[in-house]
Automatic annotation (TrEMBL):
Residues 75-96 are annotated as: Disordered. This is Type IV pilus assembly protein PilP. PROSITE patterns: PROKAR_LIPOPROTEIN (PS51257). Transmembrane segments: none annotated. It holds the Pfam family PilP. It comes from Vreelandella subterranea. It comes from the Bacteria.
Length: 179
């Protein structure tokens, strides 16, 4: 039995040797020579291959005489932002102190009557209290105070939209007893 095992081992070794010789690459020495040549050359930047891009004939833009889609219609352009229209703000008017803040940041803390006129006290986010009267401006949307009552300030803001141009919208500040 030992001779049988020995013959099997020898046959296995011979089969493995035959398989390994089949894996030998005849071009391996040539590959190694090419790699040696590449290693010995001074390194330089790789060659940049610029692909060919075909030239297309110029096309005429067919809608060049029409309105640009990136500009508002002429009726809106005539009443553009910064140009005083029917409801637009006065660009020459100097800004007032409370126009730095949005209405949501301002708080009505009290009202009183001084010299026959109603005066409101507005607290800013910076902790400052500013007195205002009818006609003063406040908020970032050119809001003008139109009325002051004991508990509320009525404001008319001017807002600009592409569809409708300058529009006025009502806003108000009320005394909040919960704060």
């Amino acid at each position: 039995m030992t001779s049988l095992v020995r013959r099997g081992l020898v046959a296995g070794w011979l089969a493995a040797l035959l398989l390994l010789t089949g894996c030998a690459d005849p071009a391996l020495p040539q590959l190694e020579a090419s790699l040696d040549d590449i290693r010995q050359k001074a390194s330089s930047e790789p060659v940049m291959v610029i692909p060919y891009i075909p030239l297309y004939p110029a096309q005429r833009y067919q809608h060049s005489d029409a309105r640009s889609p990136f500009l508002p219609p002429q009726s809106i352009q005539d009443n553009a932002y910064g140009v005083a229209g029917e409801n637009g703000p006065d660009p020459q008017r100097p800004a007032e102190p409370l126009e730095r803040f949005s209405l949501q940041e301002l708080q009505l803390v009290g009202t009183l009557r001084m010299g026959g006129r109603q005066v409101a006290m507005i607290a800013t986010p910076e902790g400052e209290v500013v007195n205002v009267r009818e006609g003063n401006y406040m908020g970032t949307n050119d809001g003008r105070i139109v009325a002051i009552s004991a508990q509320e300030i009525e404001i008319r803001e001017r807002v600009y939209t592409q569809q409708n141009g300058w529009q006025t919208r009502p806003a108000s500040l009320t005394i909040d007893d919960e704060r």
